[in-house]
């Protein structure tokens, strides 16, 4: 009799080890008298509580996993929104055949300068533009740091065979540039976009073979 009860306990513990807690509780079948009955009841309660704890843990992990998936989706959505905002804040527009323009509005920091340079170079390579007009009409300031960013952008575009010109260099920006010691050696500068576009068209026309 005791041997059978011990075997049932061992079977129950085996079931519990593979997380079959309900089956384990049923398999124990505690007796009604004696120390062995107390042991059976204790093990039954332990397995039952272990099963409840396991179910709660599984539910918690399920909720945590769902929360993590939702968080990942939100982060992905934020990244998509940031990419859209970045594209809107650094638009590369096609003005004419072989001529692009990059309007710069507001303050240019290192992160934005890197984004603008990357967007510009992608546009140049994709469209095969020969000229890029960097329009500074809406720029807030023109200091030494901004000039450094623009110089890097101009040099990078030049490596792809594209010439950059600056437009929108009005009185305020001119004064700020002089005070900051900003120089754009070898980069044509114009007061407005119209003058810059006229210059680029003239350069393109002069570079055409006769009869075209």
Provide a compact summary of the structure:
The chain is an alpha/beta fold and 212 residues long. It is 65% helix and 12% strand.
Describe the structure.
A four-stranded mixed sheet has the order 1-2-3-4, sandwiched between helices. The protein is of the alpha/beta class and 212 residues long. Helix 1 runs antiparallel to helix 2 (21-28), helix 2 runs antiparallel to helix 3 and helix 4 (110-127) runs parallel beside helix 5. The N and C termini lie far apart (109 Å). The mean pLDDT is 79. 65% of the residues lie in helices and 12% in strands. It folds into two domains: 2-86; 93-206, STAS domain (Transcription Regulator spoIIAA), CATH 3.30.750.24. The radius of gyration is 37 Å and the shape is rod-shaped.
Give the topology, please.
Blueprint: H1 2-17, H2 21-28, H3 34-89, E1 93-96, E2 99-106, H4 110-127, E3 131-139, H5 144-159, E4 163-167, H6 171-180, H7 193-206
Parallel strand pairs: 2-3, 3-4
Antiparallel strand pairs: 1-2
């Amino acid at each position: 009799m005791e041997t059978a009860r011990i075997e049932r306990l061992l079977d129950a513990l085996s079931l519990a080890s593979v997380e079959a807690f309900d089956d384990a509780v049923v398999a124990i079948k505690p007796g009604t008298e004696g120390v062995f009955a107390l042991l059976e009841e204790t093990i039954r309660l332990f397995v039952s509580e272990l099963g409840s704890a396991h179910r709660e843990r599984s539910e918690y992990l399920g909720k945590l996993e769902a929360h993590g998936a939702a968080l990942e989706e939100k982060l992905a959505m934020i990244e998509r929104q940031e990419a859209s905002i970045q594209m809107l804040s650094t638009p590369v527009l096609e003005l004419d055949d072989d001529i692009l323009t990059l309007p710069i509005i507001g303050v240019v920091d290192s992160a934005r300068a890197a984004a603008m340079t990357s967007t510009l170079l992608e546009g140049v390579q994709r469209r095969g533009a020969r000229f890029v007009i960097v329009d500074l009409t809406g720029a807030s300031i023109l200091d030494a740091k901004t000039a450094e960013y623009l110089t890097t952008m101009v040099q990078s575009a030049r490596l792809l065979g594209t010439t950059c010109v600056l437009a929108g260099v009005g009185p305020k920006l001119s004064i700020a540039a002089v005070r900051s010691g900003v120089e754009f050696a070898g980069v044509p500068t114009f007061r407005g976009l119209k003058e810059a576009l006229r210059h680029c068209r003239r350069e393109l026309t002069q570079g055409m073979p006769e009869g075209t």
